[in-house]
Amino acid sequence: MAFLEISNLEKSFGTNRVVKDFNLSIDQGEFVSLLGPSGCGKTTVLRMVGGFETPSGGTITIDDVDVNGLRPNQRNIGMVFQAYALFPNLTVAQNVAFGLKVAGVDKAQTRDRVREMLELIGLSDLGGRYPFQLSGGQQQRVALARALAVRPKVLLLDEPLSALDAKIRASLRREIREIQQRLAITTIFVTHDQEEALSMSDRVVVMTGGMADQIGTPYQIYNQPTTRFVAGFVGTLNTFDATVTDPATGVVQIGETSVVLNRAVPALKGAAVTLAMRPESATLGAGQDGDLILKGKITEVQFQGAIIRITADVGGQQLTLDQFNRAGSPPPAIGAETSISLPASSLVVLVA
Amino acid sequence: MSKVLAWTAIVLGCIYFILPMIGMAEFSLSMRRGVYSLDAYRVVLADPVFQATFGYSVVMALVTIAFGVLLVVPTAYWVQLKLPEMRPVVEFITLLPLVIPAIVIVFGYIRLYNTSSWLPLTGTVMGTNLLLMFGYTMLAMPYMYRAVDTGLRSIDVATLTEAAQSLGAGWVRIVMTIILPNVLGAVLSGAFLTFAIVIGEFTMAAILDRPAFGPYMQLLGANRAYEPAALAVIAFAITWACMGLIQMVSKLFKHKRAQS
């Protein structure tokens, strides 16, 4: 049995079912992100694990203990909130020590643990300050230290980086992941930011409409999305409407062009499917042998620094492709006719 | 032209409020014929009844404040956290003492808790004191509740509570170590108002026949000439000191919050 097991979890507010038959197993020390748009139920799932919402159905077990009947203060979980939630009347050190004091840990041990935690987050010299004297990033680090000080079984992070500016967000992202790996603490991270989820997690749960749409490693989620929602929500995606002509060998028809995918397609002959392709899979000009070649006209060029995002009109469909910026190779001109090549293996068939 | 009218209104207003006070203060200093002196104050302050009644009212005020804080802070906290839809109802209830005269409340108390009732509180001195304290708490409720509620709204009660819960804290610890210290400024404002109300309250104390400061002021006013004026000045000074303390405390806490 996994360390944290969520089975058939349900939550309704009145007639509104916000979490539907949600299942998830998390191993000890794993970092799992719940990713999805606002209102998809990700925070509700996290809050049910924390004990702040009562499930309408299903079970949650942590370390083989069914925690459904336990109050939040009996679950031994650590939680970090988007709004930091540091106690304004306590200093940084007192905030970190709060959970230890509640647990009745003696003074000397508390002092050592607080010192250890403040060292962990790199704020050893700020123990005497009050929360209002800290920056947002520092406050969130203290919140993390406070949550970790009590050695919780599970760490719950509820969009902890959302209130911070981009630069601090990126550095704190690395820091949180590093600390999580060092302590090997089982962690659930809720975010609507796909970059955060993909860069930090061992596994990502993409949620929509209260359900887990796909659970997989960041690599799987990005490269092998199984539903149209996941494909569309995570990263940018080009989609083509196609018709299956030979499911066994994977031959599909996109308009006039026949494309051989060289793998079985899970659909009947004549079925309409969607082919999806990431912008970075396509290249301008002739590619390698066997690549699918499409003719198009450049309609938009966005220079983004390391990446140049190009939009081309291909037979009436807009296709986006990303090219690395190379000095000496200027971006193509808008209106230029071009050929676009893409390997058949980069096309993902979306049936759902 | 409008400026002249505005200033005239202000001056008239000031005269209306200040002139009687100047007159009263002047009269309180006129006990000794021909010269200003503090004789009236000396007499009042040396009067053992003054000391006893003032001491009684101060103790009652402190007990009322303690009871009010224990009643209002958890109630306002719970309403904000769990029953936000009940807020209008609770606000209405807390405002009732402003529209129900104290005399009605106290007669209601006597009717309910007299010696032949199922809870004969008026039968003993301690019981009557308790009843008076409940009455004072009710009179101060509109101010105390409003102050605490405003304080609670200025902090993220729900998230702070959840943060404390996730760290293992129970309700009592959360209220005492997290919520109360963070609304202390508001609680102190409510406390000073309560103090001012209790010190000057007459109706309840007189009808319940307790030796409070209000009835003493009335008694003195009916029998002496200069001392009641001195007493009124003292009572004003206490009220103003309370108001000053409210200003000071709220400024202090606002300053702290502004930095956060």
What does it look like?
The complex is a heterodimer of chains A (352) and B (260). Chain A is an alpha+beta fold and 352 residues long. Chain A is built from 8 helices and 20 strands. Chain A has a 6-stranded mixed sheet, sandwiched between helices. In chain A, strands 13-12-11-14-20 form a 5-stranded antiparallel sheet, with no helix packed on it. In chain A, strands 15-19-16-17-18 form a 5-stranded antiparallel sheet, with no helix packed on it. In chain A, a hairpin with a 2-residue loop joins strand 12 and strand 13 (257-260). In chain A, helix 2 packs parallel to helix 4. The longest helix of chain A is centred in the middle third of the chain and has 18 residues, at 166-183. Chain A is globular and about 75 Å long. Chain A starts with a strand and ends with a strand. The longest helix of chain B is centred in the first third of the chain and has 34 residues, at 48-81. The model of chain B has no long low-confidence stretch (mean pLDDT 90).
Nutshell version of this structure?
The complex is a heterodimer of chains A (352) and B (260). Helix content of chain A is 24%, strand content 35%. By secondary structure, chain A is of the alpha+beta class.
